[in-house]
Automatic annotation (TrEMBL):
<dbReference type="Pfam" id="PF02958">
    <property type="entry name" value="EcKL"/>
</dbReference>
<feature type="coiled-coil region">
    <location>
        <begin position="422"/>
        <end position="449"/>
    </location>
</feature>
<dbReference type="InterPro" id="IPR015897">
    <property type="entry name" value="CHK_kinase-like"/>
</dbReference>
<protein>
    <submittedName>
        <fullName>Uncharacterized protein LOC107271615</fullName>
    </submittedName>
</protein>
<feature type="domain" description="CHK kinase-like">
    <location>
        <begin position="137"/>
        <end position="335"/>
    </location>
</feature>
<dbReference type="InterPro" id="IPR011009">
    <property type="entry name" value="Kinase-like_dom_sf"/>
</dbReference>
<dbReference type="InterPro" id="IPR004119">
    <property type="entry name" value="EcKL"/>
</dbReference>
<keyword id="KW-0175">Coiled coil</keyword>
<feature type="domain" description="CHK kinase-like">
    <location>
        <begin position="554"/>
        <end position="752"/>
    </location>
</feature>
Amino acid sequence: MQSSQHCPEAYMDQEIHVDYLEEHLNEIAKKLNIERPRFRVTRGAKVGQYFIGDIFRVIVKGSRDEKICEIHVILKCAPRDPTRQEAMDSTPIFPREIMFYQEIVPIFVNLLKEYDMVLENIPKFYGASAIQTREIIFMEDLSEKNYTCRDRLKLLDYSHASLVMRELGRLHAYSFALREKKPEIFQKFKKIHDVLFTVNSHGTDVFLNRLRELQRIALKSIKQEGNIYAKRIRKFTSSFWEKMSNACNGNLVEPYAVICHGDAWTNNFMFKYEDEPKKKPISMYFLDFQMCRYATPVTDLTYTLFCCCNQETRARYYKQLLSDYHRSLSDFLTRFGCDPELLFPYDELTKQLRKFGYFGLGMAIFTLHVFTKVDADVNTVSKTHKDVVEAEERLDTDILYKSMLVGALVDAVDMGYISSMATDISQEHRKSERENELLEELKKIAKNVNYANPRFHVSPGSAKGDNIFGDIYRTTIEGEKDGKLEKSCSIIKCVPELQYLEEVIKVSTVFQREIMFYREIVPIFKKLLQEHDFELESIPKFYGADDTPNKQIIILEDLREKQYELRDRLKLLDYPHAYLALRGLGRFHAYSFALRDKHPEIFKKIQSIEDTMSEAIKNPTELMTKFQEGITALALKSISHKDPYYVQRVETFLENILPKLIEASDGSFAEPYAVLCHGDAWTNNFLFKYDDEAKTNPTSMYLLDFQMCRYASPIIDIMYTLFCCCSQETRREHYEQLLQDYHESLSSFLQQLGCDPEVLFPYEIFQQQVKKYGYYGPTMALFTLHGQTDATGEFGNMMDVNFCKKLEKRLETDRLFKNMMASAFIDAVDKNYI
């Protein structure tokens, strides 16, 4: 074998046996039909560039078809040094990459061929040897295609990180498409378990000692950021191994697990550029699949974003980079004839980020001391932990290492990735980020109304507990127009910060529902009313919305400027307030009845608006099922002191509550008397205006929050209000009168619109529907009163396994909660609704 002057044969023999290498190179030459091959070998990676093995560049020269040819090959071999083998535990790693190229890549290639595509971002594989401690892998040398590694110390700026995200999207799309198109073949992927955070690695003293020291260094680095961060990081590191192992377990994220790259950091990406300064990469390849595993895609994404990007890049582009990833994944799935909204919707990506986003931080703690070292040398990775000892010293001298480590720690805390709920940490950081988003929306409004030199003010728009499915902000814009100073006030609703809500309902879906209501339904109602010289009353003016998934914003008029205000939910609705609420609902429902009568074709749009909660009810999560069981037991306990007759009736009703709830929310069961219902008609969604200082006599009202609007029987709105917002005393004194107040309002307005209420919704039919769907009131009481009566405004995390136990204690001490819950079921039994 001919060797290079840069890599003499004597030196090569220290790395790998020359005869052994030549034997495999001859096999490759034979596969490529190269005769009389000669080989030239040089080192293929700089010191510090490759940590788990050794890289050599090989030039194979010979003849093929009687012509001189030259093939460039990269050779990867396992480390020969026993110390490095133990420290890095390379035993399972090389066989994993060999398996990837020999078994997984052909599956991907065949799948792509079926759709006229080729595998573009993975190097060609020429062969391998899997003999333990003497493993070798041969693949194409991408430098011949002008691909180069980026200097790891420069990190990844947006242009590089975006390309990586998009290519990870493509790589992950292969798995999602295979899962759908060839499920039998896909089963093979489920056996590809993690090789890093395994029991074997866990039992390696060298590995564990290194990990403990690196965790201690992380805690030391974060001290200056304050106790909140230190507390969160300490809690995270206390269960580090378990958390990292869970993140790498694909069985925990079904059906959204894929074959992940597993080691997605800078040195495992090769870029090609269109410009000489190499600032804008145009394509890339992945290298080193030694850690590939079946896991959540989030492990790849957060590894790259937290270990290869600095804090500034994350602050500016984090959400955009996630969007780049998902858009690429979706595009490729579409090319495979798959529906990305079924296989991996954006909502699911954000949910998995909240659940496993900590993985990026874990890898940052574990690897950044090496990734950021100027003269990183694999020989420092030994039993003496020289690299770890140096890492602690570098906290005081190495700006890159410290800033990357602290940035990863702070961002993981601020993003809520290492806390069960993000409500008690870094509120100011998230508040600032949210207000920046609002500021951009306000600038758009100022531009639309031609304000010069605009000034903006943003403040909280509701008290704690006043709005669970959204965060409310009150905004003011002051500016000059036509030489005068003008002011515009608005309310902005944003997707809430309460992450557990995703387990209860897809918050993005309910926001989309309200945006649809204002954009599509309100114009229909307005046009109908204009035909009869009426204006739309009792619904706020709509100024605009952003429907970007999980970032939705709705901008409405600030009714405070018209002296409308919320009633204290703990005071409930007395008769004057309930009277106005029921009359307002009557008018609102009249729009649907009139539209059905006057414009039946347009009315079909209303009929298509299904309940946003039905899917969650039909297919409840395990936690939701436990919550239902717990809250049901609570309801029975609230009436346990009553006559057994009540207990038996309620118990029988609760056994079949979910199908009844679905039926009540489905308008097809109430035809031809179904309407567009408000869907969430409780105290905090009514705004009242008063004519007295004591605020006992409301004169008019507005309806808010149409996130749950649906096509159903009008009775569900009425029962929700009467059983969840009124006391038992109010119901006993005014129940029948309030029902009459509702129907009189509806009938009166239908007549003004030229309709006959005795045809569209006669009182007799109304009473029949009250009897049929009256159970909806206590049903909603069951699921909502714990929050509506909570004086703290916390509402609580319904997905907390101890949540119902906490409510059980409240039942003993909170008189309002207990009385409202018990009376809702007692009255429903007395009225024969259940």
